[in-house]
């Protein structure tokens, strides 16, 4: 009876969960990294993941239950149960494991004109593994040292009048790290609804997209807009504009077109012209992007 309950619960979670699930392992730390700094970095990664609302975060107990259920089904399938064999794949679907290493979290000081400024050297890496086949799907190193990619451009902003302030500033940058990492490695993709949009003269200024909070879309998220074109027998996606989410509901979101308003209007006009003769004409596509450096 217990096995049946676990099986039904896990199957229901997989069948109806709309967000992929992710388990964050205990990170490793290099020599010289204190336990306190390690804990703060890992906690910041988890907090950033939660804020994106892109994944259902799992705890160790849930992962253990999934593993036990998988083992039971594999045992059954080894005998005669083809259904159990298929359900192994369902149980493992859309699960990811995130591992990480904290390489450095130290503070350097620089004295000038009688004043001391502090900068934190923070380097860490994360790796995401697909639980179903135990393969790495994404990995990245983040370097917030003054000479690193994450720190060179923001060195002045990261400087602080205290060592603890410099460390806090560096750890706070993890939020942006994780946001951009997920956008780059796990971009949200969808379409613009062609049936409902707002125009002003020859521009599209507002529209709806078929993504919502059920997949992690939030107010303020940004997307690039693509028109699907066929050239020389090849299908390509051409970026024609940008949009920003102004109101995210469960399954759809209202958006403001912030760039390419005229191009989007022309593309929608072409869509309506073509769809009459070809019902398979594709809608305008969208893909999540980081917030532009200069946005208005």
Quick description:
By secondary structure, the chain is α+β, with helices and mostly antiparallel strands. Helices cover 35% and strands 36% of the residues.
**Total count of helical runs of at least 4 residues:** 8
* Head-to-tail CA distance between termini: 58 Å
Series of H and E elements? HEEHEHHEEEHHHEEEEEHE
- β-sheet strand percentage: 35-45%
Mean pLDDT: 82
Radius of gyration: 24 Å
Structural class: alpha+beta
Q: Which overall shape is indicated by the principal axes computed on the Cα atoms?
A: globular
Your description of this structure?
The model is unreliable at 1-17, 86-91 and 149-157 (pLDDT under 50). Helix 1 packs across helix 4 and helix 3 (60-79) packs antiparallel against helix 4. The chain has helices at 2-16, 35-52, 60-79, 82-92, 155-158, 163-172, 174-185, 261-275, and strands at residues 21-24, 28-29, 56-58, 95-112, 115-130, 135-143, 189-200, 203-209, 222-231, 234-248, 253-259, 285-289. Strands 1, 2, 3, 4, 5 and 6 form a six-stranded mixed β-sheet that branches. It has eight helices and twelve strands. Strand 4 and strand 5 (115-130) form a beta hairpin. The termini are far apart. It is globular, with a radius of gyration of 24 Å. It has 296 residues and is α+β, with helices and mostly antiparallel strands.
